[in-house]
Amino acid sequence: MSKTPSDALSATLHNHLQQIIRENQQLAEKLDFDQVAAILPLLQQAKRVFVVGAGRTGLALKAAAMRLMHLGLTVFVVGETTTPAIGSGDVLLAGSGSGTTSSIVKAAEKAAAAGAQVVAISTTTSSPLAALATHVAVLPAAQKQDHGGEISAQYAGSLFEQSVLLLLDAIFQTLWGLDGTPAEELWKRHANLE
Amino acid sequence: MSKTPSDALSATLHNHLQQIIRENQQLAEKLDFDQVAAILPLLQQAKRVFVVGAGRTGLALKAAAMRLMHLGLTVFVVGETTTPAIGSGDVLLAGSGSGTTSSIVKAAEKAAAAGAQVVAISTTTSSPLAALATHVAVLPAAQKQDHGGEISAQYAGSLFEQSVLLLLDAIFQTLWGLDGTPAEELWKRHANLE
Amino acid sequence: MSKTPSDALSATLHNHLQQIIRENQQLAEKLDFDQVAAILPLLQQAKRVFVVGAGRTGLALKAAAMRLMHLGLTVFVVGETTTPAIGSGDVLLAGSGSGTTSSIVKAAEKAAAAGAQVVAISTTTSSPLAALATHVAVLPAAQKQDHGGEISAQYAGSLFEQSVLLLLDAIFQTLWGLDGTPAEELWKRHANLE
Amino acid sequence: MSKTPSDALSATLHNHLQQIIRENQQLAEKLDFDQVAAILPLLQQAKRVFVVGAGRTGLALKAAAMRLMHLGLTVFVVGETTTPAIGSGDVLLAGSGSGTTSSIVKAAEKAAAAGAQVVAISTTTSSPLAALATHVAVLPAAQKQDHGGEISAQYAGSLFEQSVLLLLDAIFQTLWGLDGTPAEELWKRHANLE
């Protein structure tokens, strides 16, 4: 019996999800985990952590910001209402695939000028953002305008954005393991007014 | 010489702005300042201040949250990324014209249950929000669906929303006067990464 | 009988609110309403309206964006999740007291390059923002770092931010009057999922 | 030669990232793709798509909202400034692991009452949210308070939140494939003022 259009749709969707997970798996195999792990003590020792990113990368950083707050760190998202001035002893965690997004580079410049450390998550160490960073963690994913599909079959920066979320969640899990606080204690820190 | 349509437009705009300011002036004359001033020690003594409001009222509360942060208070906006759990010793500053907005009433319930004090800014002391509040400051403006225009010729809750901003800015000015910190010191607390 | 500290607090708060309203009244007297009214046809004829502002000025513009949406215009806030690309036929309504805020000037540059018109609300016509604007409406309020208090006794840009809200609400009332749609019809356009 | 603490940290981080990807892979194997694929025609035929979710689930839905906007759909995020009223012909895409998050259930109730269709993404078909939904896509991940770790070793709802992002990106890739618009055309729709 021939497949219906609906069967074909399910199969295509299945294939796309498999491919997305496979791309993230392949990217993980290319990571320099020593380089990435160097972020952890910077976060642990930071007086306060500020996160910044544009578009979907910014959303991945916000997701990480929530988890770091649950872990007990003092965390702010650049651009939100009561985010204070950054200063010495603070860390700016900045995500940008290309490392050239103007608002992110500008924030990194200002953070560095204010005496904060800049930690970049990017696809490259050769960028204006990387030049300003104390430390760069490289996720060798496609950049937003690599429409050729050599590294990823996905649209624009999707692989980078997904991998930022997954990597930051792995960083959270690792920090949590070092910290040892029971899940129930973290749970009490979740926003309780929504 | 007869007026052009453009002259008429300028005159109408002028009249509307005059009327908006006059409505705010008339509302100020009706305020019970002893009742409103009772908010100040609650904010000063709060461990942390959380603000919540829907729509344009929420925007007025965010504007106030920024100023209170500049003054040195620890302030969070409900619903933003790293806003933590509210608890004992904290104050929830909740604005709602009607005092019935479901998400605001729900937040007030949860805040009270968590041991925080609820300070309401509303047009009435007879509402679910007011019933949950430790203290209510009444701004006798029209409510959102008073389309009759008895109190205000403006659309919906505009007068209430404007007066929330102006009153909270007056509260800020008063707290600042008590505090005495120079403007230059407050300025250093402004967000510096945007 | 001597006043209690609480009486004094009420009186101080009362004075501050009076002063805030008086400053807005005095500012309104200095406005060139022909210049401001020229914004109205630009908004009416715009394919889509985009608003942008930093900090409290941005909050005032968001409040205006809501009302313009209620009136039936297609309105987007720069930086929100599904705000599309601006282009020819669109208007960017940009607020900045100094006209120098880097993110706002950058947005105005990009908007102009994309073929959109830039309408600025500012304290001055001599600024990078004004240079990019098709039209500037001047609110002669103090700028953020005028700590001297010649124009306003309020902190930083508070008077400018308040006056942006009040003026844009006057613009809304004027556009609404021209439009003639009943309040009940506007009400149906309010967000109904919060 | 013994490993340094830094080597151990890298290895732990590596293991956590592998585990996160493996959990997402295992979850994908359990999906009913016919059930999930049924979302696609609902999105394609929607007059407008509204998305809603709390916390990190909400961030995953915002990331999807951006991509759907790039694809040419009319998409709004519940709670953002100019999001209009939902109505007949519209779809509310609501994400909640438990299907009990009160603000999400409330939004679904209101959407259904306004004549919109509710599409839920959840871990279960037995919930107040599922009861209101036209269609439920089940991601059999752990719920937020399953601290036991049977399904996922990750904290709280992390696996659910990650899988919402990856699945919605797979849905986007599938819709994009059906649509056939070149990447360069989608790129022109990206926000251009940030």
TrEMBL record, chains A, B, C, D:
GO molecular function: carbohydrate derivative binding; isomerase activity
GO biological process, one term: carbohydrate derivative metabolic process
InterPro entries: PHI/rmpB (IPR017552), SIS_dom (IPR001347), SIS_dom_sf (IPR046348)
All copies of domain SIS, residue ranges: 39-181
Pfam assignment, any one: SIS
NCBIfam families, alphabetized: RuMP_HxlB
Family classification: Belongs to the SIS family. PHI subfamily.
Protein name, as recorded: 6-phospho-3-hexuloisomerase
Gene behind this protein: hxlB
